[in-house]
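Fold this complex.
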Amino acid sequence: MPASNQSDDVARYAAAVRAALAPLPDAERENLLEDLESHLEEVATESALPLRERLGAPEEYAEELKSAYGAAGVQANPKQSRLIRDRSTALIQGVLGTRAYREIRALLPELRPGWWVLRAYLAVLILAFIFRDGGNLRPIPNPFSSHGLLQIVATVIAIVISVRLGRRGMPAGRVWRGGAVAVNFAIAVLALPVLVSMGTGYSWSPSTDQYLSSVSAGYYPNFTNIYPYSKDGKPLHDVLLYDQDGRPLVPAQSGLITDVPIGADGLPIPNSYPLNQRGPNGDLVLPPRVALPPQRASSPSPSPTPSPTP
Amino acid sequence: MPHTNGTIDTSQLLKGVLDIAVLAVLAEKDSYGYDVLRRLRESGLEDVGDASVYGTLRRLYQAGALKSYVVPSDEGPHRKYYGLNDRGRRALDQSTETWGSLTRALDQLLNGRSAAHAS
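Structure:
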């Protein structure tokens, strides 16, 4: 038989077999017939007789295939097929049943209340980030500033609401359920840039800061902070100090964490005194008690003492 | 297919042991579909059908007992070879044991019957 006739014969026969097996589920049929054509070609090359004469009608061939592939062929040898099935399920269960996987799976429901609290905290943090007025955003807001206090109160309220919602379980409607998932996801995603900005841009310690290279600063090793006072004993704030070369006066590395104010240009102002510093344990560094020297009576009122220069 | 006249169709018997036969053939050496059929027929299983062998190969492959690879051939189509993997070898060992105990039991039954028949 010429080659072209033979391949036609194979294609026709294979198509008829496929058609006869059409009622099978698609995946199963594909698994069974994956290399039917190449197999039939192999058969065809062995003899010049048409396939129909050698293999019988395609419908019969399909029936035989189905019975050899399907349950009918398995029944006669249950022990072996069970063995194979057991092995494959054992393999899947081996992966799913590893201790680590099981422990994590078991832990997830227990972690749910933790997420309820965390998402409330993060949601308020995101809002505080959006509405911040150039101030420093801290992991735990300063309760002695109005903004910080507001943030703490808002966080507590948000936690109460979030836990109540969480305990109620997922809403019934599909739309609501999708919305709930989306909101949780959005909080988790939006919190990332906020947390990242907190980590680098706004809390600053001299030992690790990279901004300093851009601000050419004079470092002085013998102090950690400067507390300026006015002549009449009032502590001054936000006093900018520069050295003789016009460089910002910045204390050298001290182990303290300094909250550096950010200028309108987005750059830190490291020489605004007194510096707002916290110790390694997070406590605010309190200003020292100072004894201010007594001033001579000021000049505007006429001085009763005689002038040093006569 | 039910047989009303009481004899057992060889193809029905074959069906049950075809898995073991195919595994045994492949344990000897890796083969492609038509070669498996030919070797089965050469070893005396004349009635085995092409579709049965092909279907059995696909099922054993799907069950994870066989590995498979394609070997280009100069004349004719590329051939898909099948061979035993570890699972297939274990399945064959298990089946050999089962087959052994089954045939021993049947031999005993048949011998007992033929002995009784003789006396």
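Chain B has a mean pLDDT of 83.
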